[in-house]
């Protein structure tokens, strides 16, 4: 997945106006007239790019409006404030990955193949420069607002953990793997996928080697399956 730009916008994700997947996020004002989803997506794309570059506090609403090609009125018709925009971005990106994981889970292939494809998709997304920058932005907001941090967690990492748990539950039911606790197993596998290189990228902004990331994912899956063979 690539970062959104004016020439390469992210595909539209149809979020419910009342929130995101039961996480309690309330990014959109209601009630009101139906919103133009294309403009809403343009706002999210522009805000994601600007937040990654400057942080939440460094981006005035006027800058988001100008980059998205909309008015401030349109922004406030869709979002209460910049924090609500950031919540919607987290929700959208996680939902996109969640749908990809769900498609992989329902596809043909061995459990090893499916887990490798899921891990590759996750690591590829989190290794994008804009997502690394956005992660730092989220960290700053979490310090200012613990309640917002909880909602960010539920919409992001918490949701990804639930999606992976479902995949592992189905694998256990199909006797493809033996697990005593899919929650712990999902957390272990996520940690194996990301590894120390994730910390290095976040702190040192080191360049990403796609081949090395793919090799890490494959090693992680092999270790995980050996440790939990049915």
Protein architecture, described:
The structure is a single chain. By secondary structure, this protein is an all-alpha fold. It has 2 domains: 34-79; 86-228. It is built from 10 helices and no strands. The radius of gyration is 19 Å and the shape is elongated.
Provide the fold topology:
Elements (H helix, E strand, L loop, with lengths): L36 H18 L6 H8 L3 H7 L3 H24 L5 H16 L2 H16 L1 H10 L1 H17 L8 H23 L5 H18 L3
Helix pairs in contact: 1-2, 1-4, 1-6, 4-5, 4-7, 4-8, 5-10, 6-7, 7-8, 8-9, 9-10
Number of domains: 2
Largest sheet: number of strands, sense, barrel closure: none
Give the proportion of residues in helices.
Answer: 55-70%
Rg, alpha carbons: 19 Å
Order of helices and strands: HHHHHHHHHH
Class by SSE composition: mainly alpha
| Mean pLDDT figure | 79
Uncertain runs are: 5-34
Gross geometry: elongated
Q: Span from first to last CA?
A: 34 Å
Portion in strands: under 5%
Number of strands: 0
Number of helices: 10
């Amino acid at each position: 997945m690539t970062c959104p730009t004016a020439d390469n916008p992210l595909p539209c994700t149809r979020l419910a106006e009342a929130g995101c997947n039961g996480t309690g996020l309330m990014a959109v004002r209601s009630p009101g007239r139906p919103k133009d989803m294309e403009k809403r997506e343009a706002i999210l794309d522009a805000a994601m790019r600007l937040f990654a570059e400057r942080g939440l506090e460094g981006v005035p609403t006027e800058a988001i409006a100008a980059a998205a090609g909309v008015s401030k009125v349109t922004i406030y018709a869709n979002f209460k404030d910049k924090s609500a925009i950031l919540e919607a971005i987290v929700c959208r990106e996680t939902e996109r990955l969640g749908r990809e994981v769900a498609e992989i889970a329902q596809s043909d292939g061995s459990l090893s193949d499916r887990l490798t494809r899921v891990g590759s998709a996750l690591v590829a997304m989190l290794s994008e420069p804009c997502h690394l920058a956005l992660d730092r932005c989220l960290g700053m907001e979490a310090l200012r607002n613990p309640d917002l941090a909880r909602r960010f967690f539920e919409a992001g990492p918490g949701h990804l953990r639930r999606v992976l748990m479902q995949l592992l539950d189905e694998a256990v039911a199909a006797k493809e793997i033996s697990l005593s606790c899919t929650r712990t197993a999902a957390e272990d596998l996520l940690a194996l996928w990301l590894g120390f290189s994730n910390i290095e990228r976040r702190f040192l902004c080191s360049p990403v080697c796609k081949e090395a990331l793919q090799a890490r994912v494959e090693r992680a899956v092999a270790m995980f399956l050996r440790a939990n063979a049915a």
